[in-house]
């Protein structure tokens, strides 16, 4: 089937094709006359040449999804959708026709800083509507912003790769230079901060006429040397104000957690030039109100020019002395007002999150029950954390008597699965696990009249370690498939993976170890439930394994990332999900002096190796539920998360204060 030619009629002659506006590998946009309403519209459809492809049906579904996304977002700065219909086996979206230029072309013809800021504010308003509808645009860029000639206002177009926030992204659709690092991963969450990066990058381009360094390149440089190759926009265009420069750089932070988390938050940075200075009191405005005849400029002294000096001197000395106490009193009064009107969050600040209440201090956690014995247990990985928490709880909540148990008379060994079993049987009040629950225990709980709820409290990523003799020059990284082939004995020489001609010697701990969950998870997620190869050597404890790794050239193993910190005898390898994905190390630097918390939090590290620790709560409306919720609240408080870090894990929450 060929493209529709000018004059071709659609939907019972209502729409008449004028011409093709644009054509790409996947889609075609037509300029069309709507004869019923006598107006120009755009009809967007898939390229008919794709009909022969096996994935065409999936493309049609995505195309329908774009129409659904657009229909939910009504705003003057978002392209409007008028109609949706099928024609000759192709889905068609009828949209508003906007005849203007896109911002990409407008920028090269010249655009002032104020014009650029006006357009960005308009698109920001549009994105607030997008985000309010639980959507992320995912392709904000100058070419997707059209300027209407009738009113010189910006309109955001092309929602082709927009997605709901809570739907997992399964495609790596992106535009380089405008896409943040999370769009290079199919596992990383993408929310409002994803569009904020793209919007800040768009402003960067508008004001400098240069595309910023792409986020993947920036990430590699930051991870390798700690230096960001992104050139400050103010260096490229000295006319950019410091406030605008700072807003762009903050919006383009590599790690999502470091960016503003909402459009409003980012706009507050962008508008800072029109707002108060960093100081809580704007002395300039106070003095301007008190002395209307005096011109005060920010960041200057009162007498910064002769005119002001002479103007002030024209007033009698007595009047100066008389007014001064009132000026000081006015400033002091405003200072008190600021203190009471804009308080910082108090130290006992708590916030409700579902069934949990997250506080700053352990002492402020509410509804901690008075129970003389609260038994809990499960994964032995929590042993150090258990010692820390029991000691501190006695100080803040002495009525909540926690007692960790490893064994019952049945003689069962502790572990994640055992802990959940004990919880279902009523032997403990809540369980600690290092593996997500399967459907089987959830069903068992349901049959007994209650439900089980997992609350993540920490990360404990698995690091892939090799003998330090395998330098980064010899072997840069591995994929999950490479790991699978190594530990199943299918690849036996590093040369097969682009490394030196050296035998691969894989190690692992045996299943009697406390960290057996690492083996279980690795076998389930990386080996895809297949057996380890007979070439894998087992060790009784981590100390023996690390010693063997240091002494054996070409050796490889997996350990929890906390065990790899400052270990000179090993090197932690960056791991990629596949050959098309970013290779990521769980360490903050080449020497692994610290865990890279940002990468772990943002799920840039492959999820197959990025484990979580959970507390499992029994929702039975009884004492066990009270105990489980109280424990989760305690561990997820700011002080509790610091305890988690002391125990060698990565806190689940980002605690900044």
Automatic annotation (TrEMBL):
The lineage of its organism: Bacteria, Bacillati, Cyanobacteriota, Cyanophyceae, Nostocales. Residues 15-291 form the Protein kinase domain. ATP binds at residue 44. Gene3D superfamilies: Periplasmic binding protein-like II, Transferase(Phosphotransferase) domain 1. PROSITE patterns: PROTEIN_KINASE_ATP, PROTEIN_KINASE_DOM, PROTEIN_KINASE_ST. SMART domains: S_TKc (SM00220). Pfam families: PBP_like_2, Pkinase. The chain crosses the membrane at residues 324-343. GO terms for molecular function: ATP binding; protein kinase activity. This is Protein kinase. Keywords: ATP-binding, Kinase, Membrane, Nucleotide-binding, Signal, Transferase, Transmembrane, Transmembrane helix.
């Amino acid at each position: 089937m060929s493209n529709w030619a000018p004059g071709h009629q659609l939907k019972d002659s209502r729409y008449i094709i004028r011409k093709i506006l644009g054509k790409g590998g996947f889609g075609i946009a037509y300029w069309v006359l709507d004869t019923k309403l006598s107006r120009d519209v755009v009809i967007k459809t898939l390229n008919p040449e794709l009909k022969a492809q096996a994935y065409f049906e999936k493309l049609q579904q995505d195309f329908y999804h774009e129409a659904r996304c657009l229909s939910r977002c009504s705003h003057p700065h978002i392209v409007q959708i008028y109609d949706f219909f099928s024609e000759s086996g192709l889905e068609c979206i009828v949209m508003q026709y906007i005849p203007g230029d896109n911002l990409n072309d407008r920028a090269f013809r010249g655009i002032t800083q104020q014009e650029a800021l006006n357009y960005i504010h308009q698109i920001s308003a549009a994105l607030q509507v997008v985000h309010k509808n639980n959507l992320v645009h995912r392709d904000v860029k100058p070419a997707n912003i059209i300027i209407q000639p009738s009113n010189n206002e910006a309109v955001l177009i092309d929602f082709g790769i927009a997605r709901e926030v809570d739907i997992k992204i399964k495609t790596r659709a992106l535009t380089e230079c405008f896409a943040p690092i999370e769009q290079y991963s199919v596992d990383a969450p993408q929310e409002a901060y994803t569009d904020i990066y793209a919007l800040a990058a768009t402003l960067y381009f508008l004001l400098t006429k240069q595309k910023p360094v792409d986020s993947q390149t920036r990430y590699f440089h930051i991870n390798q040397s700690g230096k960001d190759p992104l050139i400050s926009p103010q260096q490229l265009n000295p006319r950019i104000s410091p406030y605008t420069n700072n807003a762009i750089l903050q919006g383009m932070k590599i790690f999502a957690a470091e960016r503003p988390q909402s459009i409003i938050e980012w706009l507050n940075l962008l508008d800072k030039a029109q707002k108060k200075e960093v100081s809580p009191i704007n002395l300039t405005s106070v003095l301007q109100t008190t002395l209307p005849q005096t011109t005060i400029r920010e960041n200057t002294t009162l007498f910064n020019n002769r005119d002001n000096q002479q103007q002030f001197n024209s007033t009698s000395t007595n009047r100066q002395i008389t007014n001064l106490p009132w000026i000081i009193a006015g400033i002091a009064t405003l200072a008190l007002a600021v203190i009471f009107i804009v308080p910082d969050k108090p130290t006992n600040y708590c916030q409700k999150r579902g069934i949990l209440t997250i506080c700053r201090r352990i002492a402020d956690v509410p509804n901690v029950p008075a129970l003389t014995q609260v038994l809990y247990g499960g994964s032995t990985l929590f042993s150090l954390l258990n010692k820390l928490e029991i000691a501190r709880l006695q100080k803040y909540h002495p009525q909540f008597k926690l007692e960790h148990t490893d064994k019952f008379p049945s003689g069962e060994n502790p572990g994640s699965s055992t802990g959940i079993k004990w919880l279902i049987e009523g032997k403990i009040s809540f369980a600690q696990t290092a593996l997500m629950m399967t459907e089987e225990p959830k069903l068992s709980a349901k049959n007994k009249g209650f439900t089980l709820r997992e609350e993540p409290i920490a990360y404990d990523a698995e690091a892939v370690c090799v003998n330090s003799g395998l330098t980064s020059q010899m072997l840069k990284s591995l994929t999950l498939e490479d790991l699978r082939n190594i530990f199943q004995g299918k690849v036996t020489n590093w040369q097969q993976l682009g490394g030196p001609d050296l035998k691969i010697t894989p190690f692992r701990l045996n299943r009697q170890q406390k960290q057996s969950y690492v083996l279980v998870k690795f076998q389930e997620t990386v080996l895809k439930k297949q057996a380890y190869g007979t070439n894998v050597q087992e060790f009784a404890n981590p100390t023996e394994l690390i010693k063997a790794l240091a002494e054996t050239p070409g050796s490889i193993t997996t350990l929890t990332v906390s065990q790899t910190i400052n270990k000179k005898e090993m090197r932690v390898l960056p791991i990629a999900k596949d050959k098309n994905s970013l290779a990521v190390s769980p360490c903050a630097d080449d020497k692994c002096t610290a865990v890279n918390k940002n990468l772990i939090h943002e799920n840039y590290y492959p999820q197959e190796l990025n484990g979580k620790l959970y507390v499992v709560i029994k929702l039975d409306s009884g004492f066990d539920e009270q105990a489980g919720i109280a424990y989760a609240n305690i561990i997820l408080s700011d002080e509790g998360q610091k305890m988690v870090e002391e125990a060698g894990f990565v806190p689940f929450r980002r605690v900044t204060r």
